[in-house]
Amino acid sequence: MAPERPRGEDAIPQPAADETPARAVEPSAPRSAQPGPHLYAALDLGTNSCRMLIAQPKGSQFQVVDSFSKTVQLGVGLEASGRLSRASMGRTVQALRICQKKIEKHGVTRMRLVATEACRRARNSRDFMRQIRRETGLTVEIIAPEEEARLAVISCAPLVSRRTEQLLVVDIGGGSTELVWIDLSAVPPEDRSRAIMRLHAGFTPRDDLPSARVVDWISVPLGVATLKDQFNDVEDDAARFALMSWFFEENLASFSPYNSENPREGFQIIGTSGTVTTVAASFLGLRRYDRTKVDGLSMTSDQIDTVIRDYLSLGPEGRRTDPRIGRDRHALIMSGAAILQALMRIWPTDRLSVADRGLREGLLYAQMSADGVLGDGPYK
Fold first, then answer.
1. CATH number 3.30.420.150 given to 147-359
2. CATH code that applies to domain 17-143+363-371
3. Where in the chain is the domain with CATH 3.30.420.40?
4. Mean pLDDT of 245-266
5. pLDDT in tens, 18-40
């Protein structure tokens, strides 16, 4: 188990007893008896997007065979009603039909298809999971916040520096933000990435190998969509941004590293989300997104602040037409930037490592690691 908090101190509000969402745990597809060089699928159904990767093991990593990404806005209206709307469920099912056709086309039998915060919170999520299975043949499971945090950490293993002794991994999603603080000081430098990968079995060490120690983790039920919804009634752009940033910081009070002294030396923050990669692309001036230039980029706090100030000076209309941001993200970039700025304010470090990877990559690494199909060697 992950470290527990005192009762009532968690940042995740507990739903009423009669409104507890379903948390499906059944497997997404039959698994063959012996692991081998199969194709693997990983699908992340979030509050804003539906994204899938199909990949095959290749050495110590994997090679992507096919992919899919679609903005479905599943969480629209959830904050007010507590339910997934008929329109958002319809958009999502249409996207999942495309995913099902890709899975069938490639003959994928080993897969994990998961849903996160929107489905954790919605009162009608159980009915929606049944609708998905009935209309697409796919079984999507709703994962707990701890597993979402763990998978985000695993996806970032290749970006962990040999010099890193204290690691903070931040995954800014549509409906929630996961933060995991890891102590790597007892792990030899050459084994630190692999120690992160071994967390696929859980946050608690299960063998005698040098282990990454999870100091604390938290899932804050505020992501780019849900935080934006909290402040829709604030008309002034700069005021709304400031309020969002401070409100997010207030929700970190129960995260133990928030109130402790943490050295800059040997400390690394890795940020994984559309917000972080968009800020990186804006810093690089990319009018057309290029993952090879963004993934693994190191940005200073000053560089991040400069990009955010530029976003504020553009205003809503300027952000809508800015090609570096893109039309799918312009409405959510300031709530994501507010979260990012709060994190850089709390932990004043010199640099942020940018990760164009997340839940899907974590799902693939976890499946392949469990099957023993990843070879030895450095992760990339």
1. yes
2. 3.30.420.40
3. 17-143+363-371
4. 82
5. 344 443 333 344 344 344 458 99
Residues of the chain above pLDDT 70, percent: 86
In this prediction, residues 85-91 reach a mean pLDDT of 96
Beta carbons of 355 and 280 less than 8 angstroms apart? no
CATH 3.30.420.150, the chain: domain bounds: 147-359
